[in-house]
Batch of 3 targets.
Target 1
Amino acid sequence: MRNSKYYSPLDLQQTTSPNRFLGMWRMTQGFRLTYLTAIAGLALAALSKTLTYLVIRKLVDEGLAKDAAIPIYYFALVFLALAAFESTFTFVAGKMAARTSEGITLRLRNYLYDHLQRLPFSYHDHAQTGELIQRATSDVDAVRRFFADQGVQLGRITLLFIINFVTLLLLNAKLALQSVIFIPLVLVISIVFFKKIEELYGAYQDQDGRLSAALQENLSGVRVVKAFARQAYEMARFENENYQKYKLGKRLLLGHALYWPVTDIICGGQMLLSFYLGARMAIAGEIT
């Protein structure tokens, strides 16, 4: 595959690995510094957000007193500065993540096109065109979405948890430990859910490929279908493939419909418990 000014050359066969995360990491070759910059931007944005809460603590404890040593407008300026830092770092992270995702998918599309051009005729004689279209469009777009959004959001959530938990641990270890009581339960539910969703999504993608293949075959062979009066058969076949996709899609959405509300309820319960325990500790004078 020819070189491009938009990405460094890479034989994508070298990225294959039984470990999917390792394979995805290998795909970032040439973009790793850019992607790490995006993650660093998210870390700084998360740190700015955490510092905002610490400034609120300082304001409530000392800034609202009549004889406060620090004028209240100083706190306002600090809030504005932290908000500006958070916005700037979030923008940088988004820009770097977009540059990484679009560069990787550009290289992947060009590689797939080049690879398909070099395959022997016997392969194309037996391969389903709809399946190839599915792999070259939906699957490539799934890779783009992972690097553009899901990967950086995973990093953002991890960094937010680490920074906030460490900060709370330094302020009050007892309250910090009480605030993560339900975390193991959420992790177990998430692992079970994502294993199930992985199976359902794979089946859904395969069925989508079969549906695309059926459509492509009928569009390219419409004269043959009409010549042999197979319209009713092909319509029934397409409707069956479409219905199978509908059933798999419904199961996939049902899994999401169950997972997110359940975890939201658990996380909401954790927040209520943390507020309750924190309020009791504040009343008892253990924290300010």
Note: The chain is about 85% helix and 0% strand.
Target 2
Amino acid sequence: GGVGFTQYATAAYTDDILDNNIYYDVDYINDKYNGAATIGKDNKVKATLDVVKDIATESTLYGIETYEKFPTALEDHFGGSQRATVLAAAAGVATALATANANAGLSGWYLSMYLHKEAWGRLGFFGYDLQDQCGATNVLSYQGDEGLPDELRGPNYPNYAM
């Protein structure tokens, strides 16, 4: 059991939809944040809570609206698990691209999960609801019991069933 395969297979299985969402996000970021999604490191926007909320929310809402325009894709991405992962992956990638900050990207990922649940009532089935609602509290937390204190992440992160 578990959702490991869903996490593993989603990127390949939903590639065009994920790409479409990220292309939209890149255009949004470049328009609003002066090209922050283009190559380079001096053009990035500072990773603040407002920036994470703005980019992840815009990305997630665009993805939700796109799914609703194409009900076949909405139904094909079973149980909500794949939809939630596609939306969250796009939000996380977009946030990280704009800020060059991996923790901001993770925060965008988890915010997308919350927004998805608010919009559609659930993230998926079985353990998926729990799994992707418990990670946000650990994004910026020091987890010394998992080792690697210099990286502030342990070898078991993100503790998904992969």
Note: Helices lie at 4-13, 15-32, 49-69, 71-76, 81-99, 102-120, 128-131.
Target 3
Amino acid sequence: MANGIAVEQIESGQSGSAGAYGVWLKMAALGLMCLGVVMIYSAGSRVDREPQWFMRLSDPASKQLMFAMVAFVVLLFMADMDYGRFRYGGSVVRWPGTYLLLAAVLLLGLVYVPVVGQEVNGARRWIRLGPVTFQPSEFAKYVLVVFLAGVLAHARYPRRKFLIGLLPLCAAIGLLCGLVVVEDLGTAALMALVAAMLLVAGGARLWQMLILALPGVAGFVYMVIKTPYRVERITSFMDIWKDPQGSGYHAIQSLVAIGNGSWWGVGLGKGIQKYGFLPEDTTDFIFSIICEEVGLAGALLVMGLIAAIVWSGLAVYRRCGDDFGKLLTFGVVATIGLQAAINIAVATVSVPTKGIALPFVSAGGSGLIVAAAALGLVCSVAQKPKT
């Protein structure tokens, strides 16, 4: 009797410990969302604006606040859902992952339909659904994680066999990445990298991954050299001062914003780079605006919250006794962590300029809500007792 109580207490402690990481995940995501709304509001606080502009539903900060509220509700809903519903049980027809993959392919294909696809800043990455615009690549990158985690976790799937195991999965990876890469090389590269990490975590051998990496790297290089503006981004990264008003402009203005902020920043709403000097100040370069207005302290806060998500997610991964839950958690956390790292690297001119959002912070509803749903599934994994 006493031994039974002791075992029950240990199991309860394990479940409570894992559940605590789920709470940390929710708090970190909420903190990033709130910071994002504040910074988008601050980026729009200009001297030519009326003080009441924040209350207008058409303004960026108001939209972002609504997106953040919806995203957090979605996160809580997905956290309360049994993530096992997305587990692959051996039947392709009955598996939700099949239909998620088909939906992702369909949505990515609609981007290239002239009437439906929307071109913004020279890139066709959005589709318009009535009054709402949606970025399918944000949906696709997490669908790929669910799909791979489900298949690789299935006990009977030949994950270590090259021809009948890995190649079919690579076909799915190639299909999604191929549809994304035409207009968004950075997101396609992120998806491919996370997919490779999942294959390794799922049991693929090193020699198999090396063989699979060759066409992937070759395709990446080809997509770079065939597009002049991508080549220009790389050459300008080598010397951003060679063309300060052209190809090096974004990088220079980002560094100016970061330098202006110093330790504590110039103050919320008091930055100058948002006055048309730094393009995409609420999306791709919002980290630079954070550095300018809130300084190194704000930058460390953002990186700390991202690190909290990654650390808590990896803790859930280590404590999960279910292969599907482990791979799902690993894929979601890797996607969020790597995307944040790329965004910050671009803002600090550590890598060539690339348009990629800062998770939970950058303006936009598609990426925010989908990332919240994915993180909610990780919270669901955290709430399941270790078996």
Note: The beta strands are 117-120, 123-129, 132-134.
